[in-house]
């Protein structure tokens, strides 16, 4: 195995790139997103538009990585997770398409509605992320327990 194999005398769940490390990376990404959003309030429209485009690109790259991860896990995991990923990506694509259509319109009322929709979408994305973090916490703790059980069984077999 690659960097997911625990090193001898290494605590379960703390493998390089293992679940605990990935959970820490998730926390770091969330903090980075918070800093970016907070800083964007003070930016002019040009810089804010650039920040939005950059965030969109990062999200698209993450979606590609998520799909690749889903493909790798397909052999090990039931199809439910792939359905969630596909459904979420379809939802993201649909919402982004609607948002892009509305951005093209310059009517004040429509722009206000588009802003409301964008805020609702952000809230939904945050709710989804919170649920994903909670699922990641469960999965990480379950992985740590499974590794501890495997290590204990290996020690007992010696």
Care to describe what's here?
This protein has 158 residues and is mainly alpha-helical. 80% of the residues lie in helices and 0% in strands.
What are its keywords?
0% strand, 158 residues, single chain, mainly alpha, 4 helices, disordered N terminus, elongated
What kind of sheet is the major sheet? none
The count of DSSP E runs of length 2 or more, i.e. the number of strands, is 0
Number of helices: 4
Percentage of residues in strands: under 5%
Please give the radius of gyration in angstroms: 20 Å
**Overall shape:** elongated
Give the end-to-end Cα distance, rounded to a whole number of Å: 22 Å
The percentage helix is over 70%
- Summarize model confidence as the mean pLDDT: 77
Order of helices and strands: HHHH
Structural class category: mainly alpha
* Uncertain parts: 1-15
């Amino acid at each position: 195995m690659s960097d997911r194999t625990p090193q001898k005398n290494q605590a379960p769940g703390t493998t390089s790139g293992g679940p605990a490390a990935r959970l820490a990376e998730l926390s770091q990404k969330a903090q980075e997103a918070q800093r970016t959003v907070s800083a964007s309030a003070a930016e002019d429209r040009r810089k804010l538009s650039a920040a939005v485009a950059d965030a969109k690109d990062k999200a698209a790259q993450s979606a590609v990585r998520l799909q690749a991860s889903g493909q790798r896990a397909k052999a090990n995991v039931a199809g439910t997770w792939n359905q969630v990923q596909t459904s979420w990506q379809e939802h993201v694509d649909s919402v982004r398409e609607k948002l892009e259509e509305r951005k093209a319109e310059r009517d004040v009322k429509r722009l206000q509605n588009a802003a409301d929709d964008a805020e609702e979408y952000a809230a939904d994305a945050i709710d989804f992320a919170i649920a994903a973090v909670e699922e990641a916490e469960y999965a990480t703790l379950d992985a740590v327990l499974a590794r501890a059980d495997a290590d204990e069984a290996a020690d007992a077999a010696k």
